[in-house]
Amino acid sequence: PPFMAPEVWAGNFGRACDIWAVGVMVFYLLTGQYPFMAAKIEDFAAAVAAEPQWTLMAGASTQGQYICWQMLCKAEASRPTAQQLVQHPWFQHFDLGGGLQGLRKTVCRGLMGVARRSNFEKFVGRLIATQLDAGQLGRVNEAFKAMDADGDGTLSRDELHGSLVTLGAKEEEAARVVDELDVARTGRISYTEFLAGVTDLRQKTVQERDALLWLAWQQFGPDERGLVRTSDIQGALATRGMTVAEMPQAFMQQLRKGASGTMDFETFKGLFEADGS
């Protein structure tokens, strides 16, 4: 009950009630007391209609007091949004590891570069994304959760677009990234699609890049000679919901040049290294 906004007690509420709850937590962290308390549950509606004892926050910074006052505004339409809060200097001061701003350099740089990648890079990124261990990708997971406002395990186009704009992307840049990641054109971006977008091979060291390319290569099931055939590729892609038609043209051309339609890892790696388009 101490965290419930006035509109919640009235039985009519939306996302702004979450901002109110954050305001209550900030007030408690800065003062050691809840801003609204009542002896009985039925008395809380009247308690939240009153003003908190703002003098308790005298020891907090001016910015801290002001942002708390904004979040605890009785009129829900006047409260800041979550995106506005993460941009506020008071929150940025703490460099919240799970927030969007704290993830700008480590994760979002990869996302913003996805539209500039070649078809081959995008294809390899999708292969890699299906095999990476999500349990080892803490920063990526934090970013995905921070952007997933409704917590449904996928990103809507609006969620991703809004998050990128919050991080400083221009509207048209954010729109291009969303279009690139929504591979299946479902209007939702899955975790795997998001991970493929984050994986920017050209930002890796040579050793890291070769390891990831090898991981992608292994998805084709090379034989004992280290070669893959068209049939190997078809089977590998089918298990991942992809088709040969989605293969980059340069890959298929190189494959046809090999003996009986085969390719080895060095040739595969060479395609990436030579692909500057």
TrEMBL record:
Residue ranges of domain Protein kinase in the record: 1-91
Gene3D superfamilies in the cross-refs: EF-hand (1.10.238.10), Transferase(Phosphotransferase) domain 1 (1.10.510.10)
Molecular function via GO: ATP binding; calcium ion binding; protein serine/threonine kinase activity
Keywords: ATP-binding, Calcium, Kinase, Nucleotide-binding, Serine/threonine-protein kinase, Transferase
Cofactor(s), names only, from the UniProt record: Mg(2+)
Source taxon at top rank: Eukaryota
Residues covered by the EF-hand domain: 135-170, 171-204
Stored InterPro entries: CDPK_Ser/Thr_kinases (IPR050205), EF-hand-dom_pair (IPR011992), EF_Hand_1_Ca_BS (IPR018247), EF_hand_dom (IPR002048), Kinase-like_dom_sf (IPR011009), Prot_kinase_dom (IPR000719)
SUPFAM superfamilies per the UniProt record, alphabetical: EF-hand, Protein kinase-like (PK-like)
Family affiliation: Belongs to the protein kinase superfamily. Ser/Thr protein kinase family. CDPK subfamily.
Name the record gives this protein: Calmodulin
Species of origin: Alexandrium catenella (Red tide dinoflagellate)
